[in-house]
Write a structure and sequence with these properties.
Elements lengths: L1 H12 L14 E3 L6 H9 L4 E4 L6 H10 L5 E6 L2 H11 L5 E4 L13 E7 L6 H7 E12 L5 H8 L10 H10 L3 E14 L2 H10 L13 H14 L2 E13 L8
Parallel strand pairs: 2-3, 2-5, 3-4, 5-6
Antiparallel strand pairs: 1-7, 6-8, 7-8
Helix pairs in contact: 1-8, 2-3
């Protein structure tokens, strides 16, 4: 199967650093949430004085939002756990005076209490609510787009077989954890969206890049499943899945209870 082998070789070698998904153009599509997270973030940057982006990836979303905002917070910081992404994010945010700290997703944030009036994150692996609340100052806002329950589960099952859908990423669970950490939930919206993969190389690159869909995925380890998926795409057309996203916005109340 020369076409399959060529696609598999391509899928195994495409760089996967950062959160730039432009390589997928013409090979995979994903509907976007209606709220426009990056644009919402850009509006917050117009009034934020001290901003932190948690688990920033390659810093692409923050850099886009800053360009659109046309202004930069006086203090701009980010965290990222994967070293190749730390380097990308450092380059992306340097023109805006931003600094990037190498921090494991589960570790405490290396900032003093009440440092920021805006904390943001797009698709965090882990939301450490006590730490997010700690680094926010009174009246400060947490704005984020999280991955929801069962996102791309169809692809998980194509690789692993029947698999239960965990509820740990349910937006109600996030809201409850935020409240338990002392935050007030201002906005919570969820949506399910359609995703399509036109060839097996796109599947392989996606699974190498978005590592929580099939933990431990490698092209070699899942060769037979990828072959079956290739045959299915050839016979039936693009492989479809659904993604889940939710927007959550919280604020840290002032001591007198005011926003």
């Amino acid at each position: 199967m020369p076409q399959f082998e060529a696609l598999l070789a391509e899928g195994a070698t495409v760089p996967v650093e950062g959160w730039d998904f432009s390589w997928f153009h013409g090979r995979a599509t994903e509907e976007r949430p209606p709220w426009g997270y990056a644009d919402l973030l850009s509006r917050r940057y117009r009034t934020a004085g001290r901003a932190l982006d948690v688990q920033t990836g390659g810093g692409e979303v923050v850099a886009w939002a800053l360009r659109r905002a046309g202004t930069t917070p006086a203090v701009l910081a980010a965290t990222e756990s994967w070293l190749p992404n730390v380097a990308l994010a450092t380059r992306a945010l340097a023109p805006y005076g931003g600094t990037v700290a190498h921090v494991a997703d589960e570790d405490p944030l290396p900032f003093d209490d009440g440092t920021f009036d805006l904390v943001s994150s797009r698709h965090p692996v882990v939301a450490g609510w006590p730490e997010l609340a700690r680094v926010l100052g009174p009246g400060g806002t947490y704005l984020a787009q999280h991955v929801g329950v069962g996102s791309v589960h169809e692809l998980t099952e194509a690789m692993l077989g029947p698999t239960p859908v965990g509820q740990g990423r349910h937006p109600d669970a996030a809201a409850a954890a935020a409240r338990a950490a002392g935050l007030e939930v201002k906005d919570l919206r969820e949506v399910r969206l359609r995703m399509e993969f036109s060839d097996v190389a796109a599947v392989a690159v996606f699974l190498r890049k978005v590592i929580w869909i099939v933990p431990g995925f490698t092209v070699d380890a899942y060769r037979e499943q990828l072959r079956a998926l290739h045959d299915r795409i050839q016979a039936e057309g693009p492989f479809t899945a659904s993604t889940s996203r939710y927007l959550i916005e919280c604020f840290k109340p002032h001591q007198n209870g005011g926003e």
